[in-house]
Fold:
Amino acid sequence: MAKLTRSRFLRQMLLGVLSCVCVVTFAACGANQGGSPTATGGEGTTGAETTTLRVATEPAFPPFESQGSGGELEGFDIDLMNAIGEAAGFTVQFQSLPFDGIIPALQSGTVDAAISAMTITAERAQTVDFSRPYFKAGLAIAVQESDTEVTSFDDLQNKRIAVQIGTTGAAEAAKIEGAQIRTFDSAPLALQELANGNVDAVINDAPVTLYAVQSGNIGGVKVIGQLITEEFYGIAIPKGSPNVEAINQGLATILEDGTYNELHQKWFGEDAPDLPETAPI
Ligand code: ARG
Structure:
């Protein structure tokens, strides 16, 4: 159930009372027009009864989520979530959290959803629910430009590897024999460590590492062409949350009406590839 802000709650209560009066008086108002704050069903809410979803993100992962110079959130995920809300009839209130704090926040119900380039994994699906996949990505290895030794995953044995804490990149790195893993709170910090020559490699989501290299945010680093994994991002919600329907419906709408493709063009400079309806996990 979406949590409402205090003023919205009061407004909803008032609307609820009014619509009850309406039902009694005219017996013509639909029952589902009532002011119940749980009304974020498959259709979303309508009219003035807009529900607000608190949505967590870790905004140091461009081009998916980052903070502009004035601190405002921007990125593909941010635009996407707002567009989904518009299509499904809810507004979005973003909350910045550390990446490894997002699933606990969903579990404790302090946020209603999370969009944070989060990979749909079998392990996470035990504790949270996911929307249908909204992006196809995968992990890539980054090394120093001068590196001639590391050309594949198998070359990472006994190397020093930087990762962002709590990510699929960290989980992959943990499988490498003899590797010294250094964990960082954000992906840019891990990449900086590589640029500084303090580690031999970074395992991170390919689109984000490529963006950091191409945008010049990180120098002296190259990305190994072959991806280690294929991953799909999903919007995470607390287990059993009814909001999954509204989110999936909003996503389906914007995939169909071209909005999704426009956002893909805006942030990746090319048309969106086809997406599966479920993630192969
Ligand atoms: N896709 C990876 C994962 O789910 C990394 C996501 C990191 N996201 C972020 N906003 N820092 O583990």
Observations:
- The chain has two domains: 19-136+232-268, 139-224.
- The helical segments are 6-26, 76-88, 102-108, 168-173, 187-195, 206-214, 243-256, 259-268.
- The domain at 139-224 is CATH 3.40.190.10 (D-Maltodextrin-Binding Protein; domain 2).
- The first helix runs from residue 6 to 26.
